[in-house]
Amino acid sequence: MPPITIRQGISYKKDGLRSFKNLYAQGQVQWTLRQMNAPRGLTTDEINGLTNLTWQPSPNDNYDFAPSPAGYALVNFRIGTEYQPSINLGGIAGRKNSAHRWGVHLEVNNLLNTRYRSYLNRLRYYADEVGRNVTVRLQYFFK
Q: Is residue 46 part of a domain?
C-alpha cells in the first residue's frame, strides 16, 4: 500500500512569441508522508533472539526488517516550447511552413537533490532513491 502523497504545483502558459508557441513553465512540490500502514520493524535483539530460539514471532503477525522510511518532499520543474521556423515560401516572407515543427523541453526532478527512500522500493533497505534527474527532450512533429 503506497504512503499518502500530496502534489501541489503552479504553471504558466503562453500561446506564442514569434516563432515559438505553446510556451510553458511548471513547478511542483511533492510531499510523501511516512508509511503509517506498515508492519512493525524487528529490533536487532528480536532478530538475534530468532537465531538463538529465545523469541518466537506470532504466526499471525507481520514483521519487516526495518521501520518504514521517513517522509520527504521533492521539488520538480519543467519548461518547454514548440518552435516553428518562419521561412520564405515563394516570395511570401514570414509564412509558416507547417511541415517543420519542433518541441524542446527541459525537466528536472528532485531539483534540490533530496536524499530519500521510498517505502514501495524493495531496495529501500540498502540504498537511497535516485538523486537529481535532468531530462532534455527534443521532438519533431510529423504531419
A: no
d(CA 126, CA 12): 39
6-20, 29-43, 86-100, 101-115: least confidently modelled range: 86-100
Where in the sequence is the domain holding 111, given as residue range(s)? 5-34+69-141
Looking from the CA of 21 toward its CB, the CA atoms found within 13 Å total 8
* Short-list 19, 16, 15, CA closest to 96: 19
Q: Is residue 50 assigned to a domain?
A: no
Question: Grid coordinates representing 20?
Answer: 515559438
Closest CA to 125 of 47, 41, 54, 32: 41
Q: Measure the CA–CA gap between 3 and 118, rounded to whole angstroms.
A: 9
Mean pLDDT of 68-82: 94
Helix (H) or strand (E) holding 44: helix 44-52
Q: Note whether residue 28 is domain-resident.
A: yes
What pLDDT score was predicted for residue 52? 58
Residue-level pLDDT at 109 = 97
Lookup result for grid cell 516570395: 91
